Automatic annotation (TrEMBL):
GO cellular component: membrane
One GO process term, biological-process aspect: determination of ventral identity
Occurrences of domain C2 Aida-type (ranges): 5-152
InterPro entries: Aida_C, C2_domain_sf
Keyword field contains Cell cycle: no
Function: Acts as a ventralizing factor during embryogenesis. Inhibits axin-mediated JNK activation by binding axin and disrupting axin homodimerization. This in turn antagonizes a Wnt/beta-catenin-independent dorsalization pathway activated by AXIN/JNK-signaling.
Gene that specifies this protein: Aida_1
PANTHER family: AXIN INTERACTOR, DORSALIZATION-ASSOCIATED PROTEIN
Annotated organism of origin: Brachypteracias leptosomus
Top-level taxon in the UniProt lineage: Eukaryota
Record family assignment: Belongs to the AIDA family.
The name this protein goes by in its record: AIDA protein
Keywords: Developmental protein
Entry GO MF terms: phosphatidylinositol binding
Amino acid sequence: PGTLLPRLPSEPGMTLLTINIEKIGLKDAGQCIDPYITVSVKDLNGIDLTPVQDTPVALRKEDMYVHFNVDIEIQKHIEKLTKGAAIFFEFKHYKPKKRFTSTKCFAFMEMDEIKPGAIVIELYKKPTDFKRKKLQLLTKKPLYLHLHQTLHKE
C-alpha cells in the first residue's frame, strides 16, 4: 500500500512541499510489474534528511507511461533543508524471474527547482547516485518524470 506520511504541522514563516507524482515515461512501461516510486530527500553526501517514502503501486499503465497521481508530503520545511539537498525519485518494479524488486531508473530535483506548478525531470540510469557525481541519462528519448508541486506557507 506504500508508506506515505501525512503533511507536517505548519509553522509560521515556513514552507511545506507537496509533490504530486503524475506519471513517468518509459519505453517499456507496459511490462513493468507492480511499479512504485521511492522518494527520499538526501544531502550532498547521500545522507537521508527525511524518512524515505514509497508510493502505492501505480494506478495504471498506458502507452509509454506509468500513471501514479499520488501526493508525497516532504517531511521537512523547505527552509530547513541543507544547501545542496535534493529530492530523489527511484522507479522500482518487480522482476518475477529474479524474484526481487529492482530499481529501473531514478530522477532528482534540486532545491532551486522547488517552485509551484508542473515540472518534468530527466531520468537517469541506475544505480541511484545520491551524491550526483556520475549521472547517465537513461535514454535519448524524451521520457521524463512528470510532477506537480504545491507549496504551503503560513
